[in-house]
Amino acid sequence: MSDGVVSLTSCNTPLLQPVWDGIREHAGARAAPLWGACVAFSAHVLLSALFLGLDALGPRAPWIRRYRMHGKPISLRAWLRCLARISWKYALCVLPVSACMGYAQTRRSAAQRERAAAPSLLVACSECLSCLLVFDTFFFVVHYTVHRNPWLFKIFHQSHHVNTHPFALMALDSSMVELASQQVLAMWSTMVVGCHPVSEILFHLLNIWLAVEDHCGYDFPWALHRILPCFGGAPFHQAHHQRVTGNYAPYFKHWDLIFGTAINM
Ligand SMILES: [Zn+2]
Ligand SMILES: [Zn+2]
């Protein structure tokens, strides 16, 4: 039995073992409380800049325009204004909250780094999917609640609904309380699943990409929701921004279908 486990692990570990070894080698930097928040913010801005580039190419490339879900792309000036807005919110709220969470997690992180083996690809993918499902559930409950309560909506969520036509960067254009709560929900999701640190990093990266994709304003044939119809993708979330109701789950469709809150564009 144990031989079977060893051989299965040894078949799967080479793929992720170098990643895990690299993380353990740089454990000091990884454990820094602000590390995760800074990397997440930079990744989000870089991915959003890719879609800003597509907007700029649009006038000269009709094939790109064909996949845009709404007319006029965001101007560079408005994009930079949004960047300035989310930067100071991050500096004032998200980074301090991340620092507090980081210190609270220090003991847990140290224990996790004791693990010598990386997870197999199958385990990493299943843990990452579990984290996404848990995060999606937490987000659905919070999002539904703030939309049903006008007072909560005003102080907590209204700033995210200023634009009816989303663009990638505005995934982070929310109130400071909402930005911080999303950080906390993501961390809770990994704690509920109890996943390996490699799976946790994969989840955070996928979470960033899906948030960008939800708001990107493009419906490409290779988007995740086209490959896996259980995901709502950009059309699903754009309908939420246009109607300011329904489609409360960020990524998957099942909660909105179960509770009768699913809407089309
Ligand atoms: Zn949104
Ligand atoms: Zn909303």
UniProtKB/TrEMBL annotation:
Protein known as: Fatty acid hydroxylase domain-containing protein
InterPro entries in the cross-refs: Fatty_acid_hydroxylase, Sterol_Desaturase_Related
GO molecular function: iron ion binding; oxidoreductase activity
Localisation: Membrane
Main subcellular localisation: membrane
GO cellular component: membrane
Keywords on record: Membrane, Transmembrane, Transmembrane helix
Superkingdom, natural source: Eukaryota
Pfam family, one: FA_hydroxylase
Listed GO biological process terms: lipid biosynthetic process
